[in-house]
Amino acid sequence: xxxxxxxxxxxxxxxxxxxxxxxxxxxxxxxxxxxxxxxxxxxxxxxxxxxxxxxxxxxxxxxxxxxxxxxxxxxxxxxxxxxxxxxxxxxxxxxxxxxxxxxxxxxxxxxxxxxxxxxxxxxxxxxxxxxxxxxxxxxxxxxxxxxxxxxxxxxxxxxxxxxxxxxxxxxxxxxxxxxxxxxxxxxxxxxxxxxxxxxxxxxxxxxxxxxxxxxxxxxxxxxxxxxxxxxxxxxxxxxxxxxxxxxxxxxxxxxxxxxxxxxxxxxxxxxxxxxxxxxxxxxxxxxxxxxxxxxxxxxxxxxxxxxxxxxxxxxxxxxxxxxxxxxxxxxxxxxxxxxxxxxxxxxxxxxxxxxxxxxxxxxxxxxxxxxxxxxxxxxxxxxxxxxxxxxxxxxxxxxxxxxxxxxxxxxxxxxxxxxxxxxxxxxxxxxxxxxxxxxxxxxxxxxxxxxxxxxxxxxxxxxxxxxxxxxxxxxxxxxxxxxxxxxxxxxxxxxxxxxxxxxxxxxxxxxxx
Length: 513
Ligand code: XMP
Prior knowledge:
Layout: E1 5-10, H1 16-25, E2 29-34, H2 39-45, E3 49-52, E4 78-81, H3 83-91, E5 95-111, H4 116-119, E6 127-140, E7 146-150, E8 158-161, E9 166-169, H5 181-192, H6 201-216, E10 221-224, H7 229-242, E11 246-252, H8 260-269, E12 274-279, H9 281-288, H10 294-316, E13 321-323, H11 328-333, E14 359-361, H12 369-378, H13 383-386, H14 406-425, E15 434-448, E16 451-464, E17 472-473, H15 478-491, E18 495-500
Parallel strand pairs: 1-2, 1-3, 3-4, 4-9, 10-11, 10-13, 11-12, 13-14, 16-18
Antiparallel strand pairs: 5-6, 5-7, 7-8, 8-9, 15-16, 16-17
The protein binds xanthosine-5'-monophosphate.
């Protein structure tokens, strides 16, 4: 039986995949497509609803994305968000103008609960906070529509033509800052589009496996396995799809945590997959000698990874596909189209110009971390793999600020292990999304015994997050931090000061480099 589908039409907004993910959370499969997708193609996909995203443009810009008016006559419900809302108004004969006061951030919004989008959300009060981000606004709604929400500065914060099942909201229901926003999207999906909402990760796995089989055919694939959640789930999916035509290569770059290489090997050796462990630590460490710039480190590591894989692929022979466990936050932060590059995640950026594989397969590219975990459980992976905290591809190389040396790697490994042990002893390991130590390149004066020391400052970092796009610093009890700090200074050489990072993301990122 075919799954219900909602299409998110991408007009260049920042939150497009987040909208898709929210719809999937409602139990409806959702994909993002370009606004340029021909209407015929959209029709063939037979979606239960279409959502227009936001975007950076003004509808009056010559280069701004537009849409064929006929989309509103296809009988498919449409929800326009932000730019999508303005575009709907403009295309159907309304008027869009520049705001005299731009609205940005949390904004008090007054809802008309006779609208199904708001009325179906029982807990939504008549005025609540919505997240706005716009400099244009709808000054006049199209004929046949009615206004269903307003703010102090925006007379048409939502409008609709219920008969034609066309809805528009100026604010962003998909972001957490809009209170009850996710419920409003659910109301659109259920009450307007009439979805049964019976899709789940099992269906995702089934479809993904079919797509992988169709793509790989009788070919062979090589998977970059780090032992982290993402590549482990990609491995489970791929091995269900193509069995022993998959070979997993675990590159030990020498930047793994204490004992991690052996742990990964033992986790996969018995899992009925072709598993190869490559000790490439000499190669990586000598390539990074003298490098302290974070982006250069990432780029070199990414390049070296691919070269090692190419070498392994040649040894195996006739490998067409390289599989990577890239997930959506990796894609967005490495920059897509006009989006800014924050960090080049090693499994996305840094590819050499000429890659010796026919194609790269990234079966998790659309998913967020928690969705990947759900998928992993669905595929029968054990909890200790599914619930491993994330570890970045470049490993400890980006947790040593400045130049990497073998001595610093040893210091960081030992300190990081102690911190992890103390978090586990305090039973916080499932509560904190990610926790690790960072070795800074700063040294300071201390006193130990009766003597002066001049040693490194170590920083501990713990964050809570659901999607790793934004994060809070974890409120770790002082006693746990104190215990870790005392043990680290006593048991690890060359650290005489331990700090705890209390910055969220934004403005910081989770990793330090
Ligand atoms: P940031 O530091 O960008 O990290 O806030 C967000 C999440 O991504 C992980 N991360 C990476 N994962 N390759 C990966 O596979 C990378 O190059 C990489 N860099 C950061 C980070 O650990 C956090 O979970």
